[in-house]
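Sequence, please.
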């Protein structure tokens, strides 16, 4: 296995870029060399979501069995057909294509994945209600990763 020398100053600059832009992950590749930096989302940003989700689960016990299904195995899971960057809106500052609770039709654009500078619309393959959005705006996604759930 070949090793390469890690430029600590370059890593610091990437880390600063993460902080300045608010990104949670950044990846850089040059030839066979590849580096990925990631950081956890701030706990303060996650706390309100967890608090808001608890009363909904208590108020709707019928939904609990569906929530027990892992997103990847959910029959309404919309998975990424490619590696790229997910965008929830057509352009910065615009309204998102869909939000939790929206009813969607077959063929309706749910989000966009940018791959190799090409914007690829991801369309609904079934009609229903969006119950979960598993990715954030401008978040890197992998092939097969669950993007959202339609029930």
């Amino acid at each position: 296995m070949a090793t390469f020398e890690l430029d600590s100053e370059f890593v610091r600059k990437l880390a600063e870029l993460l902080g300045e832009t608010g990104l949670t992950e950044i990846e850089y590749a040059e030839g066979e060399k590849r580096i990925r930096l990631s950081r956890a989302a701030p706990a303060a940003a996650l706390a309100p979501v967890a608090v808001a989700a608890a009363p909904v689960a208590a108020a709707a016990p019928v939904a609990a069995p569906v929530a027990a299904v892992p997103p990847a195995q959910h029959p309404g899971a919309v998975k990424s057909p490619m590696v790229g960057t997910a965008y929830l809106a057509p352009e910065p500052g615009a309204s998102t294509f869909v939000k939790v609770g929206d009813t969607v039709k077959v063929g309706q654009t749910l989000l966009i994945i940018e791959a190799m500078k090409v914007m690829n619309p991801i369309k609904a393959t079934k009609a229903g209600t969006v119950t979960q959005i598993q990715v954030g705006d401008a978040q890197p996604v992998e092939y097969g990763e669950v993007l959202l759930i339609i029930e």
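The radius of gyration is 18 Å.
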